[in-house]
Amino acid sequence: MPLIQVKVLAGVFTTSQKEEIIERLTDALVQVQGENLRPHTWCVIEEIASGAWGVGGQPQTADDVRALGSG
What we know:
By secondary structure, the protein is of the alpha+beta class. It has helices at residues 15-33, 62-69, and strands spanning 3-9, 42-48, 53-55, 58-60. The chain has a single domain (3-69), classed as Macrophage Migration Inhibitory Factor (2-Layer Sandwich), CATH 3.30.429.10. The chain is built from 2 helices and 4 strands; from the N terminus they run βαβββα.
């Protein structure tokens, strides 16, 4: 059965945003494969500690990601 894994920095997304991510990603998979998979599709959001994720050799923090999201 499908498993959608999403990794994000802790403290960036609210509970309601995570719920929306789960809903929309599940919807996307179901559009491709069919509605019968909805009840069998798992979506897991794993939060990584702020500063424990690096991009381009530099650690990223929740503040860094929020700054990107705000433009």
